[in-house]
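Section 5: illustrative case.
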């Protein structure tokens, strides 16, 4: 759920400006879920732009504070949200941990890196939600470590039903700076996407799990 319309529009505009939105309908991207997609939103690129990453950091930090006050710890979902999660934690003056997809196979065999104690209030930072599987896998690890997961703030969501259902099942609140409708609106207003590409994107969005070029 998008909390602030202006932030949603501005974030979409910035993602387009830094070419974080990639379109490849003829030779689709393979997503973490295994889905084939004509679009890829690479939020990692934000970290390469100091002014834009400061904007994203501040908007995420504001949402964390507005929704949850001061949690004890900020957790970033590895690897995409380690950088931005750390920036949000730094801005709020809070401790930071990051959560691997699975425990490391050597060393200390940690899945959660950093210091986390049972019963601490944690807000999770994620860069992007497709199915929500990666983020909720991190939530599961945090809960198993005894954390009190208050909710999640992410930069972008495609807003798929499957993700909504997954978050509902796990009883985790999700807020995002921007989402797919805002991105598409902004991309068509600025002629970033052509009509033919827009049609592909609309068709893909109606049934992404089985879409083929
Ligand atoms: O909602 P989902 O279907 O789980 O997909 C979204 C996830 O995919 C990306 O991570 P990726 O697995 O590409 O790894 P990375 O963060 O290490 O780049 C992204 O950073 C999310 O964590
Ligand atoms: O689902 C994914 O793997 C995914 C999609 C996307 O647009 N961006 C990203 O970083 N990951």
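Designed sequence:
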């Amino acid at each position: 759920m998008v909390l602030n319309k202006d932030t949603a529009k501005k974030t979409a505009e910035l993602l387009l400006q830094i070419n974080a939105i990639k379109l490849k309908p003829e030779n689709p991207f393979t997503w973490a879920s295994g889905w084939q997609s004509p679009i890829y939103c690479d939020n990692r690129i934000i970290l390469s732009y100091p002014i834009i990453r400061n904007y994203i950091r501040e908007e995420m930090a504001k949402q964390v504070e507005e929704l949850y006050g001061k949690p004890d710890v900020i957790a970033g979902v590895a690897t995409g949200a380690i950088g931005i999660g750390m920036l949000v934690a730094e801005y709020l003056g809070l401790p930071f941990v990051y959560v691997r997809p699975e425990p490391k196979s050597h060393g200390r065999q940690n899945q959660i890196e950093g210091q986390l104690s049972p019963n601490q209030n944690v807000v999770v930072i994620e860069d992007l939600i497709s199915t929500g599987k990666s983020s909720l896998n991190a939530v599961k690890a945090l809960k198993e470590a005894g954390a009190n997961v208050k909710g999640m703030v992410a930069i972008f969501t495609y807003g798929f039903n499957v993700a909504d259902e997954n978050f509902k099942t796990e009883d985790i609140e999700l807020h995002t700076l921007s989402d797919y409708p805002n991105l598409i609106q902004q991309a068509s207003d600025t002629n970033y996407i052509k009509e033919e590409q827009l049609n592909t994107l609309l068709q893909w969005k109606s049934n992404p799990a089985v879409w083929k070029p």
